[in-house]
């Protein structure tokens, strides 16, 4: 950025201009584009995850089920990473289906002002995107209209499909004494990459009312086959009469799927 020298205009007869002062003639000349920005970061609010993963790893895997994808420069990096000459400028967000190849500078999916050395902006078309991996980048535009080169791309995986495990049951009565009997529920859980193998088993007395929140046990599905089983133990305590069982499973994006409720007939029906 440079200042063009101040001066006074004169006509052919040597008359100087009087309608303007030298302060009026100061012009800032900036032909240089901003430095290449860092890749945008998906905000924690839109980087969804399973509760167990949030508790241990937070929300930083960029695998999400969110309908709205919001990006920022201030997530996990200081806002001062943006070049100083972009103050008062803008940032443009780009979406691509590939990790490489130049995006069209004239075709951003969103534009936002740079405020306080940072920005926050959302992809308005993210709700209509199919499941898959998309690559986001930004370009900076300074006040002089210079555009930076494209930033590195952030890969974001959209996964809005919940895994759906199956469930069936078998009943074993060792003697006529109910205390020695048991009910086993078993089934298969999806075990593709991203499907979490800890399963939530719920057994509720009577109908399925309340089964959505009542947790009985957590079992681990087999990593190779997805198979699992859980034995309730004694037929006493709710198994004498009918009850309902259900299994639920999360994936990395935080989608939760459940089997259809299974009725477990008790000894008394």
From TrEMBL:
It comes from the Bacteria. GO terms for biological process: carbohydrate metabolic process. InterPro entries: Ig-like_fold. This is Bacterial Ig-like domain-containing protein. It comes from Arenivirga flava. The lineage of its organism: Bacteria, Bacillati, Actinomycetota, Actinomycetes, Micrococcales.
